[in-house]
Structures are given as C-alpha cells and as structure tokens.
Amino acid sequence: MGAVVKQVFLSYCGDKKSDMEGKSWAKLAKDTKIIDKKLTATDIDLIFAKVKTKSERRINWEQFTNGLQLCAEKKGVDVNAVFEKVAASKGPVLKGTAAEKVALHDDKSNYTGVYAQGGPTNVDNHIVHDISQTVNRNPADVRGTVTQQEMAAVTHGVAGVVIHDKPAAAKPVAKAAAPKQAAVQAGAGGSLAEIFASFAKGKEMDGKTFSKFSKDCKVIDKKCSATDIDLIFAKVKNGPAARKIIFKEFMAGLELVAGKKGMAMGALEDSICKAGGPVFTGTKAEANKFHDDKSLYTGVYANGGPSNADGKISDLSQIADRSAANVRGSKM
C-alpha cells in the first residue's frame, strides 16, 4: 500500500517534483474526502504547518506520511484507514466552470437563415473551407495591383469572392435586354435610362447610390433584401477593382433582382418607372417663435430691418471713414 500512496503523493507534487506544497496538500485532503466534521480544512492547514520544516514551504514524503498520521489521530481512526483512502485516489481531480446554456446556440430549432440548413457551406455551391478561398492570391505588381488577365480569373458568388486558377469565361450579354428597355413606357419618373442618370448624376453609379436607388424605388422587400442588393452590385460590376457600374451593368443587375423577387422583368421596370427618381430627406428645424412670428420683432427689425428703417446706408462703405489720414491712421 505504501508504494501506491507514494505514487498518489508524487501525482500531487507536480511535474518533476518530489515534494508537495500546502495548496496541493489541501487539495489531496479534499479529493480523497478525508476532511469531515472532526478533521476540518483548517486542521489540514495546521497539520501541514506542523510537519513541514520551519523555513520551507513544501513537505517531502516522510513529512507527508507524518501528516497523514496526525490526520488519523485528529479523526480518531487507525492510520491505515487514512492510507487506504489516499491509496484509492487516482490522482488530482480536475474541475472547471461549466458554461451556462444559451438557447440560441444550443437549441438548433432556433437557428435561422443558412444556419437552419446546416451552415453556409452546405447551402451554397462554392464550398468555402478557409480564408485562402476568399482572397486573391494571384500574381500582382509591386503596388499590389492585379493584372487585367488575372482579374478575369475572379468571379463573385453569394459566399464571397472565389479565385479560380483559370480565367473565367466572359458572361454572355442577353441580346433581349435592349429591346425590353426600348419597350418600357415612361411613368412618373421617365425611362430607366433617365432614372439611372438622375441617381448616378453621370454615366456611372457606385454601390451606395445603387442601394439608395433600390430603397427609393421600393425594390427592396422581403424577397430581395438590402444584403441581396449589395451582393448583386458586387456580381455585376466589372471585376474586383471596379467600384462603379455603367447602365448596361445596371440593367444586368435589375435582371438578377427580378429573378430574386420571382417577377417578370417588364413588371419590375414598370414599378421602378412609376416610383420616380431620388427621394431627398432631411431634418426639419423646430419652430422658433422669436424668428417665425414677426409680431414679436423689436427695434429696427420691427420696421423691416436696419437698411429699410434709415433709408440711407446701403453698404459698408457708407459707415466707414474714408477721409485722408497719416500712416498711423490719425486724421490730418
């Protein structure tokens, strides 16, 4: 039994240690359940202080056995009973704080969006495993600019930007798009080209303006969210370096919006044309009676202001002294 007890003693001493500190002695007493009403935790600390060398902070094997004997005397039992409890130990008992339950994490029935389907890598077709698949690792010049040939290798997907080893084929331009544009009847806001120009204020439109257009023309709804609009803009713009789109790319974006909303392109165009151009909003100033109510004006302001009350002074030159003076400004 002595060999087994010594093995337990060494396991509490720590790595590469042959003596035990007071903290480990207290933990051993607690783990082996030798502490009770007769032998308290305070008694354990006092016994450790009694058996250790005065100038030391640790006890060796011999001092440890002496401490167990004092524990047996304090409990009023045979020392072998204490040794048996220590021998039955399998080493230090490791404990930790268990995290509280979080309903939105633990209960998968509360999952929403792509996580309700198992996560983004299970619902998209791009299978993005790590960050290397969402960044451009293709060769670039000393300024970090990717060549036009390398830009052609970049395609945009819902899960992010995926880099292919070979340049992607150019997207086919639908020939039926132009006739549809010509067939649109001008509504309250005019044609799509006019609406595009009114938002873009030029020939190109950036992502912020495209989002404003979608909001003002009521393109955004439950089927096509603001996030979908941002992804569509990233998909139709000309490469990752581009930050603006032209009218042709704008029309391609509307095709994707119509598909997302599950409606005909013609119906979407009619809805946009009827919505009109940009909607400008601002903060309206609060009423101020001393400014808005002219019956409260006093002094020259009650008579229409200083220039209307005297009828003489019309500008600053009439109240400044322009007569001759010396270099110090004093009159001659």
Tell me the series of helices and strands, N- to C-terminal: HEHHEHHHHHEEHHEHHEHHHH
Q: Any idea what the CATH architecture of the domain at 177-275 is? A: Orthogonal Bundle
The level of helicity is: 40-55%
Radius of gyration over alpha carbons?
42 Å
pLDDT under 50 segments (min length 5)?
Answer: 155-168, 176-188
Q: Helical segment tally?
A: 16
Oligomer: single chain
CATH homologous superfamily annotation of the domain at 177-275 = EF-hand
Gap between N and C termini, in Å? 122 Å
Strand order of the largest sheet: 1-2
What does this structure look like?
The chain is mainly α and 332 residues long. Among the domains are: 2-87, Recoverin, domain 1 (Orthogonal Bundle), CATH 1.10.238.10; 177-275, Orthogonal Bundle (Recoverin, domain 1), CATH 1.10.238. The chain has 16 helices and six strands. It has helices spanning 2-13, 22-31, 41-51, 61-75, 79-87, 103-106, 120-123, 148-151, 177-183, 192-200, 207-216, 226-236, 247-261, 265-275, 289-292, 306-310; strands at residues 20-21, 58-59, 154-157, 160-163, 205-206, 244-245. The strands form three sheets. It has a two-stranded antiparallel sheet. Strand 3 and strand 4 form a beta hairpin. It is elongated and about 115 Å long.
Question: Main traits of this protein?
Answer:
332 residues, Recoverin, domain 1, 16 helices, two-stranded antiparallel ribbon
Describe the SSE topology:
Blueprint: H1 2-13, E1 20-21, H2 22-31, H3 41-51, E2 58-59, H4 61-75, H5 79-87, H6 103-106, H7 120-123, H8 148-151, E3 154-157, E4 160-163, H9 177-183, H10 192-200, E5 205-206, H11 207-216, H12 226-236, E6 244-245, H13 247-261, H14 265-275, H15 289-292, H16 306-310
Antiparallel strand pairs: 1-2, 3-4, 5-6
Helix pairs in contact: 1-5, 2-3, 3-4, 4-5, 11-12, 12-13
